[in-house]
Design brief:
By secondary structure, the chain is of the alpha+beta class. It has a single domain, classed as Glutaredoxin (3-Layer(aba) Sandwich), CATH 3.40.30.10. Helices cover about 30% and strands about 25% of the residues. The protein contains five helices and nine strands, in the order βββααβαβαββββα. The strands form two sheets. The chain has a seven-stranded mixed beta sheet with strand order 2-1-5-4-3-8-9. A two-stranded antiparallel sheet has the order 6-7. β8 and β9 form a beta hairpin.
């Protein structure tokens, strides 16, 4: 179970940029690690496009947006290209990292899978905020508001 102020679980996942990524490379910045069920589906597209639209505002706050799903890299690349997404997507086909971050569970009629969850990791690598059962519409504004109210 992920707890506020606990050290965020490390990860090593393949990214849509063709590189392997770990938690420590984001040290010194807020990491907005958002978990979503599936590329190019209505809710996931709404959430991704919302983050993309506010990416400059988010980056100015010293934060980085990274999306994580169990989709493969080819799917991530198609999704990024289709919507001109300018942030990194990570692939977790085993669901190990998704589970470590508490974003895996029963999705009702969709069965077990990735729950729409966002974890904000502070500049020191600790869990600053957990958003569960995220409403994809306007979620980026919630993130901006939180970071603005928690300067480090």
């Amino acid at each position: 179970m992920l707890d506020l102020n606990s050290k965020a679980p490390d990860f090593s996942l393949d990214g849509s940029d063709g590189k392997k990524h770990t938690l420590r490379e984001f040290s010194g910045k807020y990491l907005i690690l958002y978990f979503y069920p599936k590329d190019d589906t209505p809710g996931c597209t709404t959430e991704a496009r919302g983050f993309n639209a506010k990416l400059n505002d988010i980056n100015k706050l010293g934060a980085v947006v990274v999306g994580v799903s169990s989709d493969n890299i080819a799917s991530h690349c198609r999704f990024q290209s289709k919507y001109n997404l300018e942030f990194l997507l990570l692939s977790d086909p085993s669901h190990d990292v998704i589970k470590d971050y508490g974003a895996y569970g029963n999705r009702g009629i969709f069965g077990m899978g990735t729950m729409r969850t966002t974890v904000i990791i502070d500049k020191t690598g600790h869990v600053a905020k957990i958003f569960e059962k995220v409403n994809p519409s306007g979620h980026e504004e919630e993130i901006i508001k939180f970071i603005k109210s928690h300067p480090e």
